[in-house]
Each structure stands twice: as structure tokens, then as C-alpha cells.
Fold:
Amino acid sequence: MESPQRGAGFLREFREFLAFLSTLWGLLGGISVFFPFSNLFSQVIPLEAYGVDDGVFNILSPPFITLVVMVVTLFVVLSTFGRRDAFKELGGHNARPQAWISMGISMTALLAYMTIHRIYGEYAYSVFKMGSDDPRKLFFEAPLLLAYTAFFSLLTRAFMLLAMLEFYRED
Structure:
């Protein structure tokens, strides 16, 4: 049976989390969990199944990739918020440079994704002689998954660090 104090602690923490997400950077951090869904509306970052509009994903499906990315970015949001006490103790020391580093690495991951995607799409059959159901395609699709996940999770981390800086600066 749950104690009333534990329930009150959960409600207090939940209210603080909602207040945290109400800041500008917190809102961007919270919304960034859903950024991977943007590929349903516009193909800014190519993420299609094999045989569909230059799609390359044959073994890993785009819905699976989107699910993995959303789970990881949600973990980043909750993990960052969960470390708020350590953040407050340090006074947000190095938060802004860490956010810039996360942003830079996320852009590098996006560049890596686009490069691997292009190489895979252009040369999978002609150079590597991989047919439509070749299991070796996983050697290209796994790095694509990692780069795609790194892009969104590091972008979310940058937003969350800036949100922590903004939210706890007011306290």
C-alpha cells in the first residue's frame, strides 16, 4: 500500500515537471520527443521503406525507427529532469557549453545519417550487390538507426539543458 507522503511527493514532482516544461526551452525539449513524427508530414530527413520514394530501410521499418527514437528522447527528457538536484547544486555550471556541444554533435550525427543514407541508397545494389532481402543490409541500417537516434536525442538534450538553466535560474 502506498503511503500518503509518497503520493504527495509524486504530485509535487509532477507539478514541478509541468512547470519546468512550461518554460520556452522546456516546451521545445518536451516537443522534441515528437520531432521524429515530422517525417509523417514532410520528408525533410529521408526515412522510407525500401522501394518507396528512394527509401532504403528493408530490415528495420520506419515505424520501428520512429518508436526507438521517441523512447530514447523521452528517456533523455526524464533523465535530465531527474538529475535536476545535481544541476541545482552545481548552479548550472557548464550547461550552456554542454548544450552547444550536444547541438554540434547532433548536427554531425544528422550529416552522418544523410551521408550513409545516400551511399546506401546509391550503391547497395550496384557496388555491394545486395538484393532486396539481403541480411547484410543491416550493416547499413544499424548505423542509420544510431545516427538518426543520436540526432534527435542530442537535440533534445541541448533543449533540456537550456530549459534547466532557464528554469532554475529563476529560483
Summary: The chain is about 70% helix and 0% strand. The chain has a mean pLDDT of 80.
